[in-house]
Structures are given as structure tokens and as C-alpha cells.
Amino acid sequence: MGGAIITFRSIKSLLDKDFTVDFLASVAIIVSIVTGQYLAAAVVVVMLNGGELLEDYASRKASRAIEKLIQSAPVKARIRKDGREVEIPIEEVKVGDSILVKPGEKIPIDGVVISGNGSVNQASITGESMPIDKTLDSEVYGNTLLEDGALEIRVNKEQRDTVFSHIVRLIEEAQANKAPVERVADKYARWFAPIIVVIALATQLLTNDIMATAAVLVVSCPCALTLATPIAVVAAMGNAAKNGILVRHGQSLEEVGKADMVIVDKTGTLTRGSPTVVNVIALDGRSVEEIVELAAVAEKFSEHAIARAILKKAEDFGLNVEDPDDFEVLTGRGVIT
Predict the structure, then answer these.
(1) What is the value of pTM for the model shown?
(2) Catalytic residue from among 56, 161, 265, 316
(3) Active site residue 265
(4) 116 — phi, psi (to 5°)?
(5) Mean pLDDT by 10 residues, the chain (337 residues)
């Protein structure tokens, strides 16, 4: 069955006046079967189809990561209706509805802040891991995380028209319309195949030995190249995933090698997006520990990334951070304690 598929593809490529690796492979398979070398034919089929299976595996792995991102989107929203808070499916939310979002919750849909303030992590949309302060009239996006504060939001887009939904559609369209990146083995076969055919014919004419001709065709079949690229792609995609990089398709890795310049965001991409306190300068005769303790008390109830960095420094010093008597967050400015 595998050999028949390869042979069919080779015939199609010949009709298009193009030599591909399938042509060499199909000739090697047919000659091997005719001469009774069934194991050689099976090896060619397994190696050629094995490369394609690896490519499909890499593609499915990237698709699963994208599906996981889609499934992370909120499925319900809390709206204000007749003076009461009611949870409804996200599909039933309409433009003009007022939705309520509490700390630690994801914003379910795009809209504009009409009350409250808070810090929103927009990494799922922009890739920027540092929280963005949101106040009255600020734009907010669905599937972003409210880390601190509370917001009342007026919906200004239907669920299918949100920025997140648009990103999902772009990814799906990109997967459905893959760029025609040529396989390394096909580039090799385009000029190599005619030469091998001539050598095989010459071998048959000179030796009149079909086994020698079969050996020439089987040995020259570029099976190793059909496996080389997929194995490298699977390994690279796996390693990228371990480092938090999602490669949509193996073809992207082949194309990026042609790039002259790569432009990336710094925070959260080249850096972890988690600030740390690296130095403390104490003035007016105060100790470093005293300064860190005062700052940690002030920031104890804050969810901001900088507040977490200060509290981590206090923990490293082994300080006992007490609760502040009063605490108020001034969005975009800091805290009052």
C-alpha cells in the first residue's frame, strides 16, 4: 500500500515534468520487487513514509498546543442584570452588556472599562508579560488576565469579533494554507534522478545483470534525506517547546533559515518578565534590611510584579513582613499604606 502511494505520487510528478524523490523511490521499489528483493523494497517504503509520519507528528504537536490555548478562553461571563450579578455563557453576551471581572479572573470578551481599575496581563494577546494598568475608558481584551483590582466593562464586540478570536482564525487559516516549502530530498532528486537513471541503464547494458541494476537504484535512493529533515524538525520543535517557544509548523523552521533579521519583543521573550531586586542603596543611616522590610510591608497586598520582587527580596533576607494598617492601590502610580 505504501509503495503504491509513492508510485502514484511519482507518476503525478512526472506528468508535471518534475523529478522528485518519489520517482527514485518508486523505481527502486518496483525493481526490488521484480528481482525478488522484497526486504529492500520494504525498507525504502518504511523510510520514505517514516519521514512523512514524523512531519505529521510535529504538525499535530503544534496544533495541540494551539488547541490548548483556545480551550483556555473563558466560557462564561458575569454580567450585571437588573441590579444583580448573573453568570451566562460567553455566546449569550451582547454588545452593550456590562460585565464584572474580579482579581485572578480572565476578562471574557473585548470592551471598555466603565468602572474600577486594575492591572491586566495581556501576554495571551500581545506577548507582553508585564501587567498593563487599566482605568476608566481603557480598552481591554478577551482572554487576558486581571491580576489586581476589579473592573466593570462595557462590551463593545461580539465574541466572534474579539481580538483573540481574530488571532485564532489567523492561526487556523495559516494551518489550512501551508506555504509550499520544498523538501531537501526533492531538491536533491531533481538533478540527481536523471543521472541515476542513465547510470542504471548503462549498468544493465554493460553487465546484463538485473541484480546489479537493482543495486544501483536502491543504493541511490535518497531515503536518508527523507528522514534527515523531519528528525531535525521534530527535535528542534521539541526543544523549542521546552523553552516556551511555539513553532506552528516544521516548514517555519526551514524558512527562518533564510531570514536576514529577526525582531523580537524584549520583556517576556528575551527576558522572563519577572523583575528581581538586584541592589538596594540605603541612605540616612538606615540598613538595607530596614529599607527592604518597609517596602515589603507597603507592597504586601499588591499583586504587581514589582511588589512580588520586593517581597521575594524580603524572604531572602529572612524578614518577618507584617500586614500594613491601611492599603490602597493607585493604578499606574503605586500604593498608599
Answers:
(1) 0.54
(2) 265
(3) yes
(4) 90, 180
(5) 61 65 73 76 72 69 69 86 85 91 92 92 80 90 90 91 84 59 62 80 86 77 66 73 68 80 76 83 88 90 84 90 82 76
